[in-house]
Amino acid sequence: MHLIDAIRDAFALLFSGDAELWQVIWISLKTTLLALFLATPLAVIAGYAIAAHTFRGRRVAIWLVQASLSLPTVLIGLLLYLMLSRQGPLGNLHWLFSQSGIVAGQVLIALPVLVAFTLAATQAADPRIAETAVTLGASRWRAMCTVLHEVRFGVMAAIISGFGRVISEVGCAIMVGGNIAGETRTMTTAIALQTSKGEFAQGIALGIVLVALALLINAGLVLLQGDPRTARGAS
């Protein structure tokens, strides 16, 4: 019965327009989308460059990208905390316990995911796409854009995976952001705080929002991809 009451209270918070709850949701979305906006161009270009070019150390680069996917976010938060602390090399930025610090951490968390997925998508593409583009007089930049357009659904999947990893992480956000109410409290850090206090309604409400976001974004990707059977029939 206690669980049923908590779920009922969670929906009441969502539909009553609770200011504190929606402020937490806004901060989470704001920092996550800004981090993806900053990380995506660099990661996509890096993923394409590793996949499309042969160079010394390429296998090591692929290994490092894949290994970085397993890095705990709390470790990234610890390293960033040391960099941004008053005695750290980036202490003059005053980003510790601020939204800028959270965004910086989320960029570092999103980069490996975006690079790895873009790398995999580009490697799976037909190499003749880039070769044909170059033969027709396209520059390297134009050839890259052509290949990325062909693997755009893979890149979209990379962005969605990056979004999911960033918005659901808690370790880095707590260490670098400090979980300050109205400033750096995100959905995941708020869930951890409210659960530790034994107040489950807000935690459940924020969990519902996280699940709803995941369903909506993935539904959008499915709609953009269309029906593969229809696409095969049209070809």
Write the layout of secondary structure elements.
Layout (H helix, E strand, L loop, with lengths): L1 H14 L3 H34 L5 H11 L4 H12 L14 H26 L3 H8 L4 H11 L1 H16 L3 H7 L9 H10 L3 H26 L2 H7 L1
Which fold name is given in CATH as the topology? MetI-like fold
CATH superfamily, by name, is MetI-like
Q: Radius of gyration from the CA trace? A: 21 Å
Largest sheet: none
Q: How would the global form be characterised? A: globular
Number of structural units classed as domains: 1
What structural class do you assign from the helix and strand content?
mainly alpha
Order of helices and strands: HHHHHHHHHHHH
- The CATH architecture term is Orthogonal Bundle
Question: Count the strands?
Answer: 0
Share of residues in strands: under 5%
Compute the number of helices.
Answer: 12
* Uncertain stretches: 230-235
Which percent bin holds the helix content?
Answer: over 70%
What is the terminal-to-terminal distance? 56 Å
By CATH reckoning, the class would read: Mainly Alpha
State mean pLDDT (0 to 100 scale).
89
Description:
- This protein has 235 residues and is mainly α.
- It has a single domain (3-225), classed as MetI-like (MetI-like fold, Orthogonal Bundle).
- The chain is built from twelve helices and no strands.
